[in-house]
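Weekly modeling sync, notes
Attendees: S.R. (lead), two postdocs, one rotation student

Agenda item 3: backlog of single-chain predictions. S.R. asked that every request posted to the team notebook include the full sequence so nobody has to chase files. The rotation student volunteered to paste the first one in as an example of the format we agreed on. Action items at the bottom.

Example entry:
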Amino acid sequence: MMNNPFKMTSLGIQHVLAMYAGAVIVPLIIGGALGLTGEQLTYLVSIDILTSGIATILQVWRNKYFGIGLPIVLGCTFTAVAPIIAIGNSYGISAIYGAIIVSGVFVVVIGKYFGKLVRFFPPVVTGSVVTIIGITLIPVAMNNMAGGEGSADFGSLSNIALAFGTLVFIILLFKFSKGFVRSISILIGLIAGTIAGFMMGKVDFSAVGEASWFHMAKPFYFGMPTFEITPIITMILVAMVSLVESTGVYFALGDICEKKVEEKDLVKGYRAEGLASIIGGIFNSFPYTTYSQNVGLIQISGVRSNNVIYTAAVMLILLGFIPKIGALTTVIPNSVLGGAMVAMFGMVVASGIKMLSKVEFASQENLLIIACSVGMGLGVSVVPGLFSELPENLRILTENGIVAGSITAIFLNILFNEFKPKQKGTQILKESKAS
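Predicted structure, as returned to the notebook:
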């Protein structure tokens, strides 16, 4: 179907561009929040791009054990950003990668049974969790808009102007452009903001000059992983929410490609995501999930060939071996990143609200689930010392806002929506009498 190398390459580049901003902004945010050096940040961006390519191949390559075989592009999930920053600040960077590896193994193991666990993650739970994650990310965006926490010019008018200028540019581009340009509006906004920042003297290219042209991926670049209970629970919850989101993407792509997605296909897709996270943990990258922006690009272009995605994956791998390209992204001023983050993190909140739109709001029980889980998640994030006097084994579930909110949502959903045997029996009896 796609034998023209030029067309194949062009379409592959489109997919790389569509996911590139989302892929590189995650390591930039996390690395900045954890105080990594320029060299470490360059490595983090480069290895993230490389492992995105490997993860994509694992998903597209359909075999006996893993890979759904649909034209899916995998990238690091935004859902993991806030949890990873929280883990890094509380337990250190080694605990991040221990938790990512364990969560990947967990996904591989439970992939076969996840269909049975999905019932415990209806929209009222996943929507609440994603909303909590999005809300906890907003302060990160605000700090960056001001120039980055601890910066000498924090809150200066030049930083605020650059941040809002970038945000307004992205909004206008999204409003007045169509098709592919619209799908990469964030990327174009970052480039335009960086050019403006350069004219204002806010761009330092020294990291690009110091970066090498080629490097090899190094397992455990940041040291051997450590395994802490709270980070592991956090990342497993993130992985479960990510799988629920991915399931929707699998079925959407199945419809677009006119392929029936069966249970065995889903299992292979889950395993591929689990393997991708394990590889991410080993090479000090991130958990990976399906990128919906690339699904939108497939709809726009009408090209549903797996070979195009293989081409994009190979490009990502090649880019990941060139640190100078990774270093280029590290020159983006914090205020420019902050402006783009407002749009991107706001979209995480919007995604959570969109999931919640499927919830039956006439049910007071559902309203209470959302109220308590979001309230608990936000409350623990704002007042982290709330449960400091609890025994250590209980603090595991309460010291992280995302974990506390997620567990609250899961527990209340089971209580109100699953644990209703008498009501269900009564309903069945009423229906049988009516018939």
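Discussion: group reviewed the output briefly. The CA atoms of residues 71 and 306 lie 5 Å apart.
Action items: rotation student to repeat for the remaining queue; S.R. to check formatting next week.
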